[in-house]
Structure formats: C-alpha cells, structure tokens
Amino acid sequence: xxxxxxxxxxxxxxxxxxxxxxxxxxxxxxxxxxxxxxxxxxxxxxxxxxxxxxxxxxxxxxxxxxxxxxxxxxxxxxxxxxxxxxxxxxxxxxxxxxxxxxxxxxxxxxxxxxxxxxxxxxxxxxxxxxxxxxxxxxxxxxxxxxxxxxxxxxxxxxxxxxxxxxxxxxxxxxxxxxxxxxxxxxxxxxxxxxxxxxxxxxxxxxxxxxxxxxxxxxxxxxxxxxxxxxxxxxxxxxxxxxxxxxxxxxxxxxxxxxxxxxxxxxxxxxxxxxxxxxxxxxxxxxxxxxxxxxxxxxxxxxxxxxxxxxxxxxxxxxxxxxxxxxxxxxxxxxxxxxxxxxxxxxxxxxxxxxxxxx
Length: 358
Known about the structure:
Rossmann fold, alpha/beta, single chain, 12 strands, 2 domains, 11 helices, twelve-stranded mixed β-sheet
C-alpha cells in the first residue's frame, strides 16, 4: 500500500490525531456533503430519465458495492457465473478493466476458450475471472453498454454480468445486487473525500438483493433492509496452488515452513489475518498498492524480504498470482491461496437469478 493511500485510510478512520490531521479531516468532511449531494442528484437524474440509460437485449445482472476497497465482488461474480453456466447459459462479464494498459478501450479479454489479453493489458480481476471458470467470456470497457454491445455482436452471450456496476447507471440491469461487508456495512457512514463511502447509504435503496460478505460464523439474523431479500456469505481459504495453477494442496504443507505473505489488494490485512485463521503464521508480510502492476522493482522487493526473513514459502492472493506468472522462475516456492465463497443460504440469490431467467 502506498504511503498516501495508507495515510488516507488512517486519517478517515481516526488513526491520525495531530492538529493538522484533524484540520484536514474536517475540511475533507465538509466536502463530503456536496459530493454526496451531487451523487444523489446524478442517481435521481437517471431515475427520472434526465440522464439517459440504455438496455441490452439480454438480461443484465449487476454486482457492486458502495464502499472503497474490497467486499468480495470477484468471488461473488464467479459464484453467479458458475451457477448460470451450470444451467447451460453462455455468460459474459463486463468489467471496467481497472489498472490495465487497455483501460478506457473496449477489448475482449477472453472468448471463453482463449485468454486474449494479459493482466498488464486487461487488469488483474478480468484475467482472474477468465482463468477461474473455463468457458466464461470477459469484456472490458469503461462504457459497459458499448462493451455489452460488442460482446453481443462477437460472443453471442445469453446473459451479461456487470462487475462493479452499482454506480454505473448508464447500463440498465434486471437484477441489482449490492454487497456489504458485514463487519462495517457503511464504513463509518461518510462519503468521499472525508470517508470511505462511494455514495450515501441511502443509495442502497436501488438494490434488489443485498449480500452481506465476510459475515461472522453463525450470522443468520435479519439484514439491515427488511424489505429486501438478502444472503449471508463468508470467505474461506481452501488451500494453495502453484502460480500457474494445478492441484489444490492443503495448508498442512505450509504450517511447518517459514512463510512470507505478500499482496497488492485493497485489504491486505484481511488476507494476512485469514492465513493465521487457517493456522499459517507468516514470519513477515509485504503489502503493495491495490492493483499493483508487478515489475522489476516489486519482484526485487519480494526477493530481498524473502532472503532477509529466511522464508522458504511465498504465499499471495489469486488476484496477484495472475500477474506474477512472467516471474515464475525467480519466485521459487511461490503459491496462490485459493479463496472460496461460502453462501450460508443461497435460496434468496437463486430465486432472484431464476426470476430473471424466466
């Protein structure tokens, strides 16, 4: 994580208490109110038809959130895509392609058979999704409506999944799924730039279905919105695989090793704590900014820390792993930790999916 992004997170969470920090936070929170108002007006303009939205001639499912940082969108998109593909449907994911050199253009990342772009071009998440599910098609583009049009013309999908689409109101959707972190659903309740919310909590009214992620064990109580169907889910590490994929191995192989863990995701501490939860206690950790484009500087930093800590096993996330394949010969003993999404009771989600398929 960069010094600036770390400072921002500490600032808005109250971890910076110097006088100049408090003054800066007060200023940012003053700006949060007009920012939130602008977003509410924008949403209202789309709702009233003052800003035009477009519909694709196939069902569209949107998966998104209202907070900065990870809430588990990628595992949820993969779960939904797998459910639909097991029904025999041709599914395409429409992604922004954040962090890739092709960002801003409309490109086919995977046609369901071949990965056509690298993570450096398409971004890590589109390539990760394409690799997780054989047969899944992925298209990137800032304008998801135009990306969907190209997907329909060239790939002929039955259905589109809009990844990170809660704020992308230009494309109409048949099912609007909102993910909320069960630990901090609204991240303090303050919008950018004085907080971690992308928009006001009132935006949750647009959701058709709410999915609470990272829920604690036994969480099965009512959701925050009694009038909306909801599901509780949790993330679970199921094992490790080599960087280029292969047989899933249990964590027993890692417990007796000197482990170094590293990641370039929005919430690296969740990854490191998750490892300890399965009995793997890293001797050292290393965090990079979210969506880090791994290059020589990052690989050198990893190898330096590996030597300094006398680590024999490197563990990273699947999102990072797709960008590390070019360095596989240098990253000896590096494995990706497989993240599994567990839905406590999938019936509300399955019912919502079946409804739009009818």
